Amino acid sequence: MVIRTDQAPDERQLAIITQQLGRAPRGIEAVAATDSKGTPLVLRMAPIVDGKPFPTLYWLCSELLKVEISRIEAVGVIKSLEQRLQEEPDFLEAYQESHRDYVKTRWAYMSNAQRDEVAMLGYTDVLTERGIGGISNWQQVRCLHTQYAHHLCGNNAVGQWMDEHYQVADCLD
Length: 173
Description:
Strands 1-2-3-6 form a 4-stranded antiparallel β-sheet, with helices on both faces. A two-stranded antiparallel sheet has the order 4-5. Helix 3 (77-87) crosses helix 4. It has one domain (3-172). It is globular, with a radius of gyration of 16 Å. The mean pLDDT is 95. Helices cover 53% and strands 14% of the residues. It has helices at residues 11-21, 63-74, 77-87, 89-109, 112-121, 124-129, 144-153, 157-166, and strands spanning 3-7, 28-34, 40-45, 48-49, 52-53, 58-60. The chain is α+β, with helices and mostly antiparallel strands.
């Protein structure tokens, strides 16, 4: 079971995240989703980390989900999804709407101070035009991990497809 939380991580969760990442985390603004035991699945990240744009709003941190999604990527699903985007206008529109949702959500989470920093550093275009995982071409699919992280926290056509065809969330039970 996935629970959307969007809360600052507590000490227990920070310890889990450190173990998941193999290092102390930087740039975390919130735990965006957990499993039923409170184990972090998705992190919501700051727009700027160490003076550079962080490439993704939602970062999949769950080892179980990372392994499951890596298996799916390994069988060539990205290539078939990109083919489907070329052949099915409705799927392409849903996918592009996922990117629009992502960009809008990312901007909405930013404080005025963060927006000012983004502008001062010259990254406004990057953070308002690049979609899920920092991709600029919204007719291509990059990392399924970032797609699925967005799916668990928002509206993502690829993540929905992954659950329909591969029952990804079932690995959490």
